[in-house]
Every structure is written in structure tokens, then in C-alpha cells.
Amino acid sequence: MRPPLWIPAWLLLLHGCATARLPQAANARTDIRDCSTDPPYLPPTATDTTARVAALRGAMQALGAQAYVVPATDAHMSEYISARDARLGWLTGFTGSAGTAVVTQDKAALWTDSRYWTQAERQLDCNWELQRTTWIESIAMWILEAVPVGGNISLDPFLFSIDTWNSYRQALQGSGRILLPIETNLVDQVWGDQRPPAGSGEIYSLPEEFTGSSWQEKVARIRQEMEQHVRHPTAVLLSGLEETAWLFNLRGDDIPYNPVFYSYTLLTNTSISLFVGEQRLAAAARSSLRAACPGPLCVELREYGQAPEHLRQYVQGNVTVWLGTEYTTYGLYSLIPQEKLLEDSYSPVMLAKAVKNSREQDLLRAAHVRDAVAVIQYLLWLEKTVPQGEVDEFLGAQRMDALRQAQEHSRGPSFQSISASGLNAALAHYSPSNGSSRQLSVDEMYLADTGGQYLDGTTDITRTVHWGTPTPLQKEAYTRVLMGNIDLSRLIFPPNTAGRVIESFARRPLWNVGLNYGHGTGHGIGNFLSVHEWPVGFQSNNVPLTAGMFTSIEPGYYQDGEFGIRIEDIALVVEAQTEHQSGENPFLTFEVVSLVPYDRNLIDISLLSPEQVRYLNTYYESIRARVGPELQRQQLQEEYDWLQRSTEPFPLGRAAATAGTGTTGALALATLLSALLPGLQA
Amino acid sequence: MRPPLWIPAWLLLLHGCATARLPQAANARTDIRDCSTDPPYLPPTATDTTARVAALRGAMQALGAQAYVVPATDAHMSEYISARDARLGWLTGFTGSAGTAVVTQDKAALWTDSRYWTQAERQLDCNWELQRTTWIESIAMWILEAVPVGGNISLDPFLFSIDTWNSYRQALQGSGRILLPIETNLVDQVWGDQRPPAGSGEIYSLPEEFTGSSWQEKVARIRQEMEQHVRHPTAVLLSGLEETAWLFNLRGDDIPYNPVFYSYTLLTNTSISLFVGEQRLAAAARSSLRAACPGPLCVELREYGQAPEHLRQYVQGNVTVWLGTEYTTYGLYSLIPQEKLLEDSYSPVMLAKAVKNSREQDLLRAAHVRDAVAVIQYLLWLEKTVPQGEVDEFLGAQRMDALRQAQEHSRGPSFQSISASGLNAALAHYSPSNGSSRQLSVDEMYLADTGGQYLDGTTDITRTVHWGTPTPLQKEAYTRVLMGNIDLSRLIFPPNTAGRVIESFARRPLWNVGLNYGHGTGHGIGNFLSVHEWPVGFQSNNVPLTAGMFTSIEPGYYQDGEFGIRIEDIALVVEAQTEHQSGENPFLTFEVVSLVPYDRNLIDISLLSPEQVRYLNTYYESIRARVGPELQRQQLQEEYDWLQRSTEPFPLGRAAATAGTGTTGALALATLLSALLPGLQA
């Protein structure tokens, strides 16, 4: 799906300019607000927030808060949030997924990153300043100017992670302003009964055939880790929604695209408290959880809202609570006395979930075979339909979603499909909407980043295609992105290597000619859970790679205002076969489980080394071996023929023979040669 | 020099076993202590510490300290320390560079890493347990067992970095034990008048021809950074010895190998306090520092020991003190109220020092040309002398040092020379001593990791050679280490890339066959300053790479009990020429400034890709162009001829033609092919 959210500042700088352009704006004047005129000009996409902001200011005044900070996330640091938690969107009108608002008695500002600057100018009214950064230091500086010494800066502590809270505290330290937690959310208060209701959909047990182990086994394993830990924690607190869903093999639909439900869990050495309305549980789920009551495997069901109070009482005792600081809120954290805390970046549940057992691996592999069928159907359909000029981005996305939906065990898309043609694909997070969607054309590149939820797995794949004649630069850039994908996928590396120290292998073919991409290289993925699953991936806060982890590998290239390329596969970390062995454990490598061929029309095979070609051919063999039979089983003969054509082995001799003399296109300088590693191999 | 000290735990695991062997111990029983016998057996290398430990216990008792923690470092977190600061060595007998001792009333233990386990068993007497780890968590657990609840654990706060102090605090948190700072160092107290005196050598100004800019220019620049910083710090506190030496262009000899002197600096926006005995300054230095008195460029000279008290007084005012947390002690840090602190990992002086201006770059380049002459002399001398069986490791190191000493502007070695033959080279930090030194032989590999101090620069280079017939594994491993060195050296990468995300390029050729090395890949280096200069390098706490930085690039391979390989060069970060440009700033690459050819006898050219061969030939051309004339100037004709022979270009055709069929030696499996990227290029 869309690449990992975390983007280092220097990459944002590189990439930032891409999003300053309006994809299709014929006339920028009517498209975005203009607060310099009197009266200000507001486009029809803007929301009038005057009454809302005034109401919030009233609530702030009543509590003596000179500033109020509103984040974009929910109490579980979820990536997608429910409508009920879209406080930032309701207050400001801005619906982007990342942002922070601050309101004082006479000012109001929204901070967001470059992906969303144009969207913000379309959606904000003139009550709001737009701040084109997301650094907490920048927010704090604004606050320091707006709030006098002695003033209170208020936040809902249940909406800020420990780290974010501490960043605010540090930024305001010594300034004479007070960071004041207010547990009653002021936006909720003024939102009132207009606020969407809490999720009430049924929470159900995953059928046993789709689980890696029973919830009782998982609980026993986590308790064993607690016992073996040197600090002997008495409890693990789970506030990530995926943690509870995974632990109990439960699923729900409180959040779009992610089959989770609002919940907390306090798993102690003697008891289990699951904070979720009992009435929401399907009968079978409830009886499974209650089968061993009373006893250490009896799950006590408590109301969702009782979690803080229950925790407060629990920590009165002689206990130690283990939690993951990356996604636990400061509100919960601050309830636990420091000496009773065992802090890790991720809870043992998060870490256990990240390493799939062989059953879970097989499930995910199987989901990817059927997913490949749907994607292949889509690519073939595009190939036939686009030349007739009948497809736009939105229609394409709908078609893709429908093809997935038709596959066995499907539970809908795993995120909002990215279907982007031409210059729109240069916006890394573009999604089309009905009515403002670009036509697909044989004259442009097209990028589809889509994924599915299946009972046996979550998928996420990006393919970029061109049905006409790509420019030399398009072909070169595509080939280099592919070379990066291949080089990372075939890398052999020691056990416990952190993803961040190897992700540059995916960038090097681009770096060699002065190009790069402005996002992360991959993220973990769940078994019918979140498509961005912590803590696996290639970023600085990801844990070391271990056999059994799944991650996306998704380098890209974005040419501002012209085109965008991304090639994304899901890969499983597996043990490698090596001539030698250092240390006790074998080295690791990747097995790519996404099974859809790349666009031959965009590959300049002469740029590839023989090893890259050999790898590609081996990968194509595995696609044929695994997807071919499924296509036949589903009686998709035309797709089967397409697959055979698309996975024809590339001649190794060609890569060797044409090396350095062939279709290097836009390339000319000698410095480029350092990326050209083709040759003749016996 | 010896590779960077920081070693990730997983690498220690890989590498740890290497040091468990005794390099030459004919009989382990007499070589190391045996505390299980009665009386215990102690080798002659052990120190009787009974009286020292008893005296320390007395001092502890007087102050109510149940445990006392003694680190290996000094008050400046120096890598090398003076004899006066060798408290750990005096107390325990153990003279390794890394370790921590803890003493209670009835127990005493030393923690050190695998490099030093054997040495510790030789040097400790039976008062001491040896703990084979360096984790603070392990030290804390030992303390928790040894000290009852309510007990005091005492430390000298001026010998612990902020981070280390906080780690102890965190590890003991909630345990009921108290972390008690005692400013009077108890080891010093019991050491008494046996403790070596403080350094008293003259501190002198570096001649202007060897400086990049005047100290006044440097001070002005730092003050400008203070003004421009959003927090408007009023002072910068310098506690790293290199910081003060660099800022004032002063040098001294308080510490072996590093031309620095004990000092602190408090640079404020209106004044400059240099804490170093005035009488130690050479007259010219004193008059330079005092030329503009009184005034903002007047350097007030205060006694070294006055720094804490002066700082205490300074922070009474309305001030903000900027400091680097990586190397400032907790003792100084805790004097500054939190709201008056501006914390960064490194001070602006440390960062300014790391980026050499063009003058400094030229100076360092020039030093490397003369240094190459000395190394080439040494390699030729070895080639002629070793076959006669007349050289051992110690003699070799002496010869190398003498050859450097004869070069212009020499100021001695920049670290203790590592001269290691055969299995001794598998110990990454081995240095020979007179009398227990291994003979060099045509039947073994030999590793020399040496460096020099010159008025114009500091050098550090490692070459590994074999004068006879290397085994297939030796040749393969050497070639792969070289390939890693080449691949990192020729990498093109975006500006502001952190070294940690690219250092794997130096490992990949080894990884491909299941091999690795257990140390970091490089470290910054100074201009006649430290050979390990923070904060440049490839480790996680190094800053992003910027044009003008110098770093070593030093992959290796160590075969336990058999041989060791390291190939180390110093490289300058320079702008790269690329076909395209992303972002505002050009991409970067490295210019290798070490100018000594590699051992042709150990290179299996068929493993190299054409690009690697081409890079190597270009590098050899630059060696010829730069070192050749200097050899001629010094009338070293034999060395000149040797250089010509040793830098003959490698045939590109050979790499291409023999690819995959040649002398791959110990390699056979198909998986190895992924490292073989040779080919035929037009």
C-alpha cells in the first residue's frame, strides 16, 4: 500500500515539491482558499469552522486553557481511525491522515506535511493558518509566541503517545508555560451529539483454519515470556488494537480496512481482562473466551471505557506492568508508577505477532496466490480496455476491488486503492475520487497500489505499467526501481540485521545516477490484520529481521508533474543457503510471496546484471508454478496465457551481449557505469 | 587503527569466540589464574590487589557506600587515558581499555568484553570475579544481588557520561537502592601519592601553516551559530579534549598518541574561559590568547580544576548552556538547571571540527602522501626481510614507527601499532609486546594496522599481506573484504545520508557467502588530533555524512585461530558527478586519500566485477600520480619501482573472461553466484 508514513526530513525535502502541484487544477484560483481578499475566497471544498472553533474556545476558557492541541490519531495510535475519532477533521475541515491543530483564543493553526498542503488549502477556511511542517519544535515555537508565560497548554493525554507527549514537554521546558493534561476531550465536548456513535458491529472469532495457534496457546506463550523476563512483570498492557485482535483471534470492523475493534487488554499472570463491550461479542467468541472461567484462562469482559480505572486499581498492588512505548498513550502510561513500569518499544505480543509461524506463513502465501489472480485479471483487463479510452482512475480502482472481492475468503480491500495515472502517480499518496479522476491512456504510465483482506491473509502490491511507448527516462527509472527491488529481495544478510541498515540496497541503482525516492522501503503486514503492521520493516524504529517476518519491499521513483513509479512486493524472511556459516544461526534472505510479473514494456534488460536477470527468471518460474495452476483451477485461460507471455524468461545472453551498448536511453555519462554490472557468465 | 569500539551485541556473538583463544599460550594452566585451587594459582602477570581493595572498602565504609563503581575512562570520556586516570588498572590489575569494576564489602567484579577476557584472566588476582559482558543491566543485576534494599551505590559523577549515568539510574529504579554521587573519587583517595602526577608538558600553538583557520575565526563562527540557534544559547561548554584543542589551535601531550591536554572551555557570547593551567602554555600561545584582552576575544585562563565551580556560578544567571551529551559527564551536566540546558548529541564545536575546510583537506591529503611513503617502505622491507626469518611482530611495529618518524612533520604514531601474524590477526585488537611476539613468515598472513601523527594530519591505514601461497579461503576472504572496501568507497549517495545506512555495502561481498566481521566499518579522523574522531563514521550514533568529512573505511574478516584480514583506508566525503540531480544539493561519494596498493598476491581478480576492477585501476593511477613523485623526491628508487609493479593495472578482460570459471577456490555453491557480477563491457 502507500509507502511507510515515516519519512526522514531530508527525504521530505527531496520529495516535497512533488505535492505542491495540483493534479488536475485547471485554475488554481478557484480551487484553493484565498484569505487575502475581503471577504476571503473559499472554494466549495472548504468547511465553515467558525462556530466549532468558537465553541472550543468557550470550553477552553472554562477550563483556563490558553491553547488546546488536537492530534489526528485515536487512543490506540491507529493509522486508520473511525469517523468518531476524526476530531481533527471535524474541527478544521481538513481530512488528511496526518496533522495537528492548535487553537488559542485568537489564533488557530494546522500543521501537516507536504503530501497534504494542497488538500489543506482546499479544505480549510480562513480561521486556520496552514503550517507547512510537522515538527513538534515548530508547533511549540508557535505556541510560545501565542501563549504568554504562565499560560496552560492543554492536551488530551489519551490521544498522545508517550514520545510525543515528552517531545512537547521537552520543547516547552523552561519556557514558563504549563503542559496541562485534560482527560475530558474538549473537541468531543463541543462536537456533542453530532459526533458519530461508537462502533457496534459484531466481534467474531477467526475460524480455526485461519489461525496460527489458539488464543490459549498465545496467552500461555506470553505468560511464559513474562516469567522468563529478568524483571518478572506481572502483567502486559495491550493498547494496540491489533494486539488484542491477534491475541484472542478475534476480528471486528470498527476501523476502515483494518478488521479490528476498539479494545484494551490487561493480561496478568493470573487473570485476563479484555476491555470490550460484552454484548458486542458473537456468541461463539464469548463462549470460547469464557470456557475456562473461573481460572487463569478465563477472560473477564469489561467495558472499553473501564480500562484506565481498572489499570489504576491494578497498579496499587505489588505489580510490574509491561507495555510498548511506541503506541501506548501518555494517559495510560502516566497511571503507572515509574517503578512498576517495564518499558519496551513494543510489547511481547507485538513482537510475537510479527514472527509468523509456519501455519501463518502458509496462510499468507495462499492468500497471495489468489490475490495474484485478481491482480493479473486486472492488468489484462486494463491492457484490453485502456486503449479504447474507457477507463479512468476511479473506475480502475473499483474494478480492482471487485476482482479481489470475487476471490475466495475475501473481506474487501486492505486500504483505499491508489490508482494513479500520469502526473498523479508522482503524488505518493494519491487516491482518485469519483468525478475528478484522470483518464488512463496508452500515452501515460499508470500506478496501481492495492491490497486485499482475506480470512487467511492481508495483501499489498504495487505494479506500474505503460501500454504505449515509455520515454527513455521512464524506462530507465522503472528499470532502476526494479533493480533496487531485486537487489534487496535477493540480499543475503546475517540474522538479527535491522532493516534500516540494508534498505539502501533498494536505492543504490537510483543513487548511482543521482535519483532517489522520498519514502520508506517497506513495512510489516498482518494475517488478516493491518496492512501496515509494526514493528517490522526497514525504518529506524523497526526491530531486527527474523525468519518468519513478512515485509513489503517497495522502492519507487517520482518525477514531479510527470509520472510516478513504485514496484512493491511482499516478502517473507527465510533462512539462506550459504557456503560458509558464521555464528550459530544461518544467514537470512527474502522469499517474495507477491506473485505478479512486472511490465516487460518498461524493463531495459541491458541495465540488469546477469545475476539480476537470473533472479528475475527464477522469480518468474515460481509465479508460473504457483499462480498458473490457480488460474487454471479458476478457468481463467486468457489470464493463464497472459501469465505465460509475461513470465517468459529473459535471455541472459542479451543482458550480457548488449551490456553498455544498448538502450541506456537518457544515460550518457561515465559515472553511470558504476551501476552497470552486466557481464558474461559461464 | 583498531576498528571502532562500538560493536552490536549480535556481532560480538559472532566474533566473541575469536578472543577466547590464547595467541601463543603453550600451556593455558600457567598462563592464567586458577582460583579453584588452594592456594589459588596466579600467573606472574597478575597483580596483588588485596591491599588496594581493602583500602577502598575502608573509604567506602567511611562514606556509607555499599558498592562503588569504577569505570575505565576519564573525565572527558577520552578513548586513550593518561596513567593518572588509569584507576581501573591500578585497582584491579587489568589494563584493557574497556571495563567496569564494582566493589562491595565482600565482593569485587570486573566486567569487560570478549576482546579482553584472556587478558583479564592473566592480570586479575582472585579478589576479582570476571564477568564476561559489558551490559549495564548485567552490572546492575549483580549489584542488586550484592547490595541490600536501602543500600547506597556510589559513583564519581565526573567519570560517567550522562547516558551511562541514566542507564544505571534506570536499571536501579524502583529497586530501593540509592544511586549516590560522591564527588571525591575514592580510588584517587586510596591511591594517594602513588598516583601519577598530572600532565605538565608544554601546550603550544599549532603553526599557522598547519591550521585551517585562526582560533578567532572559529570562535566567531561558533558564536554565530549560538546567535542563530532558535534557543539562543548564551554559552557552549566544551569538555571533549579535542574540542578545546581544535578551537584554539593548541596541542599538548597529556594523553598517549593524541596531542591533547586536560582542559575545559566555557565559550559564552561575551567571554571565553579556558580551564588549563596558565603556566602550562607556551609564551606564544599565551600571548595569542591574551592579545585582545579585555574584550570578547580575550581568553581568560583558569585552573583546570575550577571548571565545575565556574560553571556553577555561571548558571546562576539568565543563561542557556549548550553541550554535547555524548561525552559530557553527568557531574557537569547536573550542575546546570534543566531549563538552562540546550542538549545535543554533539556540541557545535564537535560538528564544526568534523567538516574539514579545503585548507584542512589539503593538509590531510599531504600527510597521507608522506605516510604512504613510509608504509610502502615498510611493505618492501618486509618483502625482503621476512623470507630470511628475521622479523617478528614487535620488530615490525618498531620498524614501521621508525619509518614514519623519519617523514617530515612527524609527531609519532597515532595509536599503538597493531602488527599481527597468523592467528594473532584474528584478535581484532592485538598488539605485540617485546618478548612474546610471533615470527613473521611466508607461510602466514600478516596484518599491520598503523598510523601516524603529523603536524598536518593524522593517518590510519591497514594492509594485510601474504608473502607465500595463501590458501583458497584466505584469498577468497581477502578479495571479498577488498570488494566491500571498494563497493563502499565508490558508492554514490544522497547528501545527509547517515553512515549506518550505507555501511552494509562494505559487508555484502562477505554476507553473500555467509561471512561477516564483528566490528564497525569506520570512524572519523582528525587533523593532528585523535585517530578516532567523533562524530563521523558508520555507526548508529554518527551524524549524517557531509562533504568535507574524513572517515576510515575498514571491512575485515577474522578466522578464529587461523588468520585475520582488514583493509583500511581513509576517505574524504566529496561531491559526486551524476547524470541527474535530485534536490538542491549534489549527491556525495568518497575520495580515498590513503595511497598504498593492496597485496596482489591475495586478490582473486576473477571475483571482481568490471566496475570494481575499473575502480581499482583508477585508484592505482592516483597512487602513482601522487606518491610516485614523492618517492622520487625522497630518492627512494627501489620503493618507486615496487610501487610501479604493485599498481600495474589489472586487465579488465581477465575479470570478464574468467568470470565464474576461474579461481573461486573454496567456493562452489550456486548461491555464491549472487556476488559474482563480472561481465563484458563495451
Outline the structure in words:
The structure is a homodimer of 682-residue chains. Chain A is 32% helix and 16% strand. Chain A has 682 residues and is of the alpha+beta class. In chain A, helix 6 (136-146) crosses helix 7, helix 15 (358-385) crosses helix 16 (393-405) and helix 19 (610-633) runs antiparallel to helix 20 (637-646). The first copy, chain A, is built from 21 helices and 27 strands. The longest helix of chain A has 28 residues, at 358-385. Residues 5-28 and 657-682 of chain A have low confidence and may be disordered. In chain A, helix 7 (162-172) links the parallel strand 5 and strand 6 (178-181). The first copy, chain A, has a 6-stranded mixed β-sheet, sandwiched between helices. In chain A, strands 12-11-10-8-13-14 form a 6-stranded mixed β-sheet. A 3-stranded antiparallel β-sheet of chain A has the order 15-18-19. Chain A starts with 8 loop residues before the first helix and ends in a 25-residue tail after the last helix. The interface between A and B is large, with 69 and 69 residues.
